[in-house]
Amino acid sequence: MRLTVDGQSFDINADPEMPLLWALRDLMGKTGPKFGCGIAACGACTVHIGGQPVRSCSLPVGQVSGAVTTIEGIGIEGKLHPVQQAWLEEQVAQCGYCQAGQIMSAVALLDEVADPSDADIDNAMGGNLCRCGTYPKIRAAIKKAAVLKTAGL
């Protein structure tokens, strides 16, 4: 089967029932999405398909229709995405395990809502768990990213 991931076409030989996460990691070398729970409950495996955040650990690769974007593919012309830049500036990461999924959910939020309220952030990020408890920093980074994105940085 053929998949487009981060703007690149991949021909893979995989069981259609293989979770997209394993196809990305094991067959395409995209190690940004992480395995956290395997039941789509933690968000560590979040990628975008057609611009929408999806949990790649529970989506069979044979059901993928549309371009897939991973954390490795969100940068803009060799620069960090505004969400990535804000994550660094706000020093969000502690252990870092959940961060790719958190960032992917935040990017999807800001693609829909330019200036999200706290309720918007809570709603969009509610399915992403962080065992280090960096939620206040995540909120601050999303708000900063909204400003950076609006300013075109």
Key phrases:
5 strands, about 150 residues, single chain, alpha+beta, 5 helices, DNA polymerase, domain 1, Ubiquitin-like (UB roll), globular, about 10% strand, three-stranded antiparallel β-sheet, two-stranded antiparallel ribbon
Your description of this structure?
This protein has 153 residues and is α+β, with helices and mostly antiparallel strands. The protein has 2 domains: 2-73, Ubiquitin-like (UB roll); 82-150, [2Fe-2S]-binding domain (DNA polymerase, domain 1, Orthogonal Bundle). The chain has 5 helices and 5 strands; from the N terminus they run E-E-H-E-E-E-H-H-H-H. A 3-stranded antiparallel β-sheet has the order 4-3-5, covered by helices on one side. A two-stranded antiparallel sheet has the order 1-2. It starts with a strand and ends with a helix. The mean pLDDT is 95.
As for the number of domains, it is 2
The arrangement of helices and strands along the chain is EEHEEEHHHH
The radius of gyration computed from the alpha-carbon positions, rounded to a whole number of angstroms, is 15 Å
Helix content bin? 25-40%
Shape: globular
Number of strands: 5
Total of DSSP H or I helical runs spanning 4+ residues: 5
Give the CATH topology of the largest domain.
Ubiquitin-like (UB roll)
Report, as a whole number of angstroms, the end-to-end distance.
Answer: 37 Å
